[in-house]
Design goal:
By secondary structure, the chain is mostly helical. The protein has six helices and two strands, in the order H-E-H-H-H-H-E-H. The chain starts with a helix and ends with a helix.
């Protein structure tokens, strides 16, 4: 998401400078907010790439292993909760070791899944960046926007100021 934020800041800065110089006065134009990341990842292309990734055997295998490990941990926890009072010291230590192994496995699987997701996000941003910048410029021009603010920087705003859905729609049209 850092890539998206940097791209958004650079894009907004460029468009803001050109909009202010073209309009001359902020009072003559509109102010809008946009969530650039939500616009990109809300596109049909991004959704298709995510669905494709989830269908890949390696990724699906990781998700299945994650769910299996979580189920094994829950089962062991239930067993510990119900029987630990009757266990010997060795049985308690063995259960503790198993739980630690499950935690380590879960941590590794989580890192792998997050790395795959980050790679996918980066590839989607790289693929859609040129068209997203073009689509944003078109929306800015059509709406007469002279000040565009990142939605994450806004505490509160009227929903009518948010052009994220317009940007997503425009981007969908450009990627078909």
């Amino acid at each position: 998401m850092r890539v998206v934020k940097k791209l958004f800041i650079v894009t907004v800065a460029l468009f803001s400078v050109s909009a202010f110089s073209a309009e001359g006065n902020a009072a003559e134009g509109n102010i809008a907010i946009v969530d650039f990341g939500r616009a990109i990842f809300g596109t049909d292309v991004a959704k298709a790439r995510l669905k494709q990734k989830q269908g890949e055997s390696d990724y699906a295998g990781l998700e299945a292993k994650y769910e299996s490990t979580v189920a094994d941990m829950k089962s062991l926890k239930q067993e510990v909760d119900s029987k630990s009072m009757t266990w010997s010291q060795e049985q308690a230590e063995e259960a503790q070791k198993k739980m630690e192994y499950y935690r380590a496995d879960l941590e590794l699987i989580t890192r792998k899944i997050k790395a795959d997701q980050k790679d996918l996000q980066n590839s989607i941003v790289q693929e859609l960046r040129p068209k997203a910048a073009e689509a944003l410029q078109e929306v800015v021009d059509e709406e007469g926007i002279v000040l565009l603010i990142n939605a994450e920087a806004v505490v509160t705003a009227a929903p009518s100021l948010d052009i994220t859905d317009k940007l997503t729609d425009r981007l969908n049209k450009k990627t078909k």
